[in-house]
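Weekly structure sync, notes
Attendees: PL (lead), two postdocs, one rotation student
Agenda item 3: pending single-chain targets
PL asked that the sequence for the first pending target be pasted directly into the notes so everyone works from the same version. It is reproduced below exactly as submitted, 198 residues in total.
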Amino acid sequence: MTEARQPDHPINSLFVDRWSPRAFTGEPIARPMLLSLLEAARWAPSAYNAQPWRFIYAQRETLSWEPIFATLVEFNQGWAQHAAALVVIVSARQAVFPGQTDAAPNAWHSFDAGAAWASIAFQATLAGWSAHGMAGFDADRLRKAAGIPDTYALETVLAIGKQGDKALLAEGLRAREMPNGRLPLTQLAAEGRFTFSE
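Predicted structure, written out during the meeting:
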């Protein structure tokens, strides 16, 4: 547990030990290990058990890597080039709900995909790897490069790798390469009624 991350209430150290570094060693990830991370995500909670998440993965130095990597914004390419794998998370916008025969809009698809991302991040931490979710990618190019139909929402691209020394990063990123804090729980949780400033 880092000094910057002290919980307000007792929790398992996994929740404060997990963070999203950008410095990766470049060490490759074996396919069975990568699939293990995705297996953890497969068991994430899901509204109506719809399981809307889908994962498109690419290990570095494979033919699958470059089409996905090329869709990242230049800033993210600068550090993600040393990741061992990229994982695109998408979610089905519709689902066939219990007792129904036709697909209908699933208002919870992104929420459920977020649970899957968290599961990957926590499993990576437990296994000695790190995961960093990115919003900086060209959605149209990614959809085309990975053959993602419009019926799926693009949620994020993850960089997965072994954490490396921050000296590997560009100078402007080195100062930011540390676990960050969180707002106190008193600003995030209220009993019975919304009392937060907007």
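Discussion points:
- The first strand starts at residue 53 and ends at 59.
- The chain has a mean pLDDT of 95.
Action: rotation student to compare against the earlier draft before next sync.
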